[in-house]
Design goal:
Elements lengths: L10 E5 H20 L9 E4 L5 E4 L2 H7 L5 H21 L3 H18 L4 H22 L5 H11 L4 H14 L4 E6 L6 E11 L16 E4 L2 E5 L10 H9 L4 E4 L4 H12 L5 E4 L5 H15 L3 E2 L16 E2 L2 E4 L3 E6 L4 H16 L3 H15 L1 E7 L4 H24 L1 E3 L3 H9 L5 H9 L2 H9 L12 E4 L4 E4 L6 E3 H19 L3 E5 L4
Parallel strand pairs: 4-14, 7-8, 7-10, 8-9
Antiparallel strand pairs: 1-19, 2-3, 5-13, 5-14, 6-12, 7-11, 12-13, 15-18, 16-17
Helix pairs in contact: 1-2, 1-3, 1-4, 2-3, 3-4, 3-17, 4-15, 4-17, 5-14, 5-15, 5-17, 6-7, 6-13, 7-13, 11-12
């Protein structure tokens, strides 16, 4: 056996209290930077990017991602908390700062408790999380049109112009529509409403991603191939691929693609020979066939199915459809088109008729979902600014607001500025030390927001009431438009508790030694 191989990385080890101290130091440093941005009076953070260029932001996950600590063991603590923030933004699109504040508070209160039975503490913390989530679901109310702007305002850091723009975009596309963000060609920020569809079918491979920062595959002006028969070899679709390359068009393939053609397409994309994305058809069995026909109506493509007499070997460009743009993330794909064509309108009418006649509740729901997919529009918010620094910061805020409104429409809203958590802590009885730790910790966003606003915390608050940090007044939060999407609130708590309870179990840290 060979030791001290020069290629091996030297490690720095810490055990017991030393390990816990190092991790907590990293958590403290990250939390201090991120928590300063929380709330209406939260501050901006200036950080250097990889080129040394200063970037100004108030976006929690951006601040967190910019933090890399010199001490390797401290950096492990910071990185673990980052993961809670990243998971929150992945699941809910917002709430990253809240997630960071909660995780830090849970860990701090656990350490101060001096409790040794970690297993019992973890169980009880997670039990209190479940109780808190049930409370939040109970007090949540549906989002009404008048509240759209309030949600958007809060997520854009009380930028009423941006908030109104985002709210208008959602009003235009309706509850079944989609709102996206693009960079403007100038310094103007505006919305454009186009037609399009969104459906459940995400990235098939990370190698197909074109926007690595957002982890999305984006195709501009693509051709679209719809297939309901497995593509076993690249030769089967060679003619349409050659057509796309010859005409300098990207291509989206929706269909079951075998391992060999998938590898070949990924390799050719990597070499720059073709711009391509591949996704599985949405749905299963008969629903898959129906949804492929829906997409054919939207895009003008022909669905290729060898069971119905089509031959993949004989297809040419005449079977291809097209779109203005296609965006695929981990879960969904959005196809943007010029307008709702006659085929789509007829398809919607047929689905409506079938839905009225259908007696099976499950099939009725699927028909309703398909109608919503075909009827919903796409709102594009074009974000402009006078500099790259301003543009980056503005885009962060717009993106947060888009996700926040989406989350609020999905599950409703609760009192904002940490008040819903504070009320939960006051209304849930703690039956153990672990539950007490969690309930004490969920008050931390409320206190952090007041601290950032330079306001002393009251000794007690009534249900649904709190401090408007912009005016210093004691108000009814929902009536004052200070609201949070309940989905974001719950997701932030779940991820914070998950990472905090994981860190509690650590008794050893092994970190890579940095070169001096």
């Amino acid at each position: 056996m060979e030791f001290n191989n020069p290629s091996e990385i030297v490690k720095d080890l810490h055990f017991g209290g030393s390990a816990q101290q190092k991790i907590m130091s990293g958590v403290e440093k990250l939390s201090k930077a991120v928590s300063s941005t929380l709330g209406a009076s939260g501050k901006c953070v200036i950080y250097e990017d990889g080129t040394g260029r200063p970037i100004v932001t108030k976006d929690g996950v951006t601040v967190a991602n910019s933090v890399i600590l010199m001490d390797p063991s401290e950096n492990i603590g910071a990185t673990l908390i980052k993961e809670a923030a990243q998971q929150t933004v992945k699941e809910a699109g917002d709430g990253t700062t809240t997630s960071t504040v909660l995780a830090h508070s849970i860990l701090k209160n656990y350490i101060n408790s001096n409790e040794k039975d970690i297993r019992k503490i973890k169980e009880d913390i997670l039990l209190a999380v479940d109780k808190t989530i049930k409370y939040l679901d109970k007090v949540a109310i549906p989002l009404k049109d008048g509240m759209l702007e309030h949600v958007a305002n809060i997520s854009t850091n009380n930028d009423k112009i941006l908030g109104k723009l985002i709210a208008n975009a959602y009003k235009e596309v309706g509850k079944d529509g989609v709102v996206l963000m693009e960079e403007s060609d100038d310094d103007q920020t505006y919305i454009e409403i186009v037609d399009g569809v969104k459906f459940d079918s995400g990235l098939k491979s990370q190698h197909l991603v074109t926007d690595k920062e957002k982890n999305k595959a984006v195709l501009e002006n693509p051709l679209i191939l719809l297939v309901d028969t497995e593509i076993e070899t690249i030769r089967k679709i060679q003619s349409v691929l050659e057509y796309a390359i010859k005409n300098k068009r990207s291509i989206l393939i929706i269909g079951p693609v075998g391992a060999q053609p998938l590898s070949a397409l990924i390799m050719n994309k990597a070499k720059g020979n073709i711009k391509v994305n591949i996704i599985d058809p949405p749905g299963f069995s008969n629903l898959r066939k129906e949804m492929l026909d829906d997409l054919a109506a939207v895009t003008g493509a022909k669905v290729i199915n060898e069971e119905l007499g089509d031959d993949l070997d004989l297809i040419d460009e005449s079977v291809l459809g097209e779109a203005i743009k296609v965006v695929t993330d981990e879960r969904d794909t959005i196809i943007t088109t010029k307008e709702i064509n006659d085929s789509t309108k007829e398809r919607i009418k047929t689905i409506e008729k079938r839905a009225k006649e259908e007696k099976n509740p499950y099939l009725q729901k699927k028909l309703s979902d398909r109608k919503a997919m075909l009827s919903g529009g796409v709102g594009i918010i074009y974000v402009g600014a006078n500099s790259k620094v301003e543009l980056k910061e503005k885009k962060d805020r717009v993106e947060d607001a888009i996700y926040a409104v989406k989350a609020a429409l999905k599950e409703g809203i609760v009192s904002g500025a940490g008040v819903a958590f504070y009320n939960a802590a006051d209304n849930i009885k703690a039956n153990s030390i672990g539950e007490k730790i969690l309930l004490q910790s969920i008050k931390s966003p409320f206190y952090t927001i007041l601290q950032n606003g330079g306001i002393d915390a009251p000794k007690k608050i009534d249900k649904g009431k709190g401090i408007d940090v912009t005016s210093g007044k004691y108000v009814n939060m929902i009536k004052s438009g200070i609201i949070d999407p309940v989905l974001v609130t719950k997701t932030a708590l779940k991820n914070a508790a998950s990472v905090a309870t994981t860190i509690m179990s650590a008794d050893c840290v092994i970190a890579n030694v940095r070169e001096q």
